[in-house]
């Protein structure tokens, strides 16, 4: 089932997600719905707070990045096959040079900015079968994970840009809060909640 994506300004996007257990109600269905929602919106990652659930769960599928012909063949193949759910994730280490990449977010439609993140991470998490993993990632996969991990910490990519850039996008952010954004996927805006 395609879920509405929560828009910028909703308090759920600012809460630190709660850890869950393998008995979390309908977990398998929640994950399936999140994938369907993400694919419908042409995203590469989606965190539970973005569908109104304040829990430590996010999904990633970097396949769309694999179509970038400027990338080495090996990296294209790695991106094409990377699809995972991360439950109760904890980034243990961020290492390497910080590098910029133009990021966007399904909860903040029509806003893109360069964000600097570390090139390599070590993360501990549970998969959808509640098996525990500690893994290292780099490049675009690490970046997508860091972006989604921020969501379960109550952080948005707009928190990682300069105050000047924030002022320049203020009107767009205000429009999203007022429900004036018109993405081609289902959204739930804070201004329209009570109506």
From TrEMBL:
Cofactor stoichiometry and binding remark: Binds 1 Fe(2+) ion.
Keyword terms: Hydrolase, Iron, Metal-binding, Protein biosynthesis
Enzyme Commission no: 3.5.1.88
List of residues binding Fe cation: 105, 147, 151
CDD domains from the UniProt entry: Pep_deformylase
Matching SUPFAM superfamilies: Peptide deformylase
Catalytic residue list: 148
Keyword ATP-binding: no
NCBIfam families found in the cross-reference section: pept_deformyl (TIGR00079), PRK00150.1-3 (NF001159)
Protein name, UniProt field: Peptide deformylase
Species the sequence originates in: Flavobacterium cyanobacteriorum
Gene expressing this chain: def
